[in-house]
């Protein structure tokens, strides 16, 4: 939960206009806006263009989240599993060492 909050704050803090998906579709949006130039007033053209760009960027963030969340969940699970195995192995190793030291001391 903390990770997602930090991730969202990071994404909200800037708009990466150089993102490969954003760049490709931005050109398409600009072309469509130029085609609409004859039919719509200037203000409506800009509103339509900004709305399309914001929707595009929101979709990019959504896809990035869809990519990051499973990876994050798996890393948390693997890290937790790693910690438990480490504790278990250390416990067993210490017991083995105690037994070996006892046998050697006889």
Structure report:
87% of the residues lie in helices and 0% in strands. It has 106 residues and is mainly α. Helix 2 packs antiparallel against helix 3.
Can you summarize this structure?
This protein has helices at 2-13, 20-35, 42-105.
Global structural class: mainly alpha
Distance between the termini: 55 Å
Rounded mean pLDDT score: 81
The string of secondary-structure elements, in order, is HHH
Shape: rod-shaped
Tell me how many strands there are: 0
Q: From the alpha-carbon coordinates, what is the Rg to the nearest angstrom? A: 28 Å
Topology:
Blueprint: H1 2-13, H2 20-35, H3 42-105
Helix pairs in contact: 2-3
Question: What are the defining features of this structure?
Answer:
106 residues, mainly alpha, single chain
């Amino acid at each position: 939960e903390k990770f997602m909050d930090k991730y969202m704050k990071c994404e909200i803090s800037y708009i990466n206009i150089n993102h490969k998906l954003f760049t490709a579709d931005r050109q398409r949006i600009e072309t469509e806006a130029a085609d609409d130039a004859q039919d719509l007033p200037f203000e409506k053209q800009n509103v339509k263009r900004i709305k399309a760009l914001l929707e595009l960027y929101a979709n990019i963030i959504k896809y990035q989240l869809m990519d990051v969340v499973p990876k994050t969940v798996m890393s948390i699970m693997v890290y937790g599993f790693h910690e438990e195995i480490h504790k278990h192995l250390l416990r067993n190793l210490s017991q083995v060492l105690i037994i070996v030291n006892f046998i050697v001391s006889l």
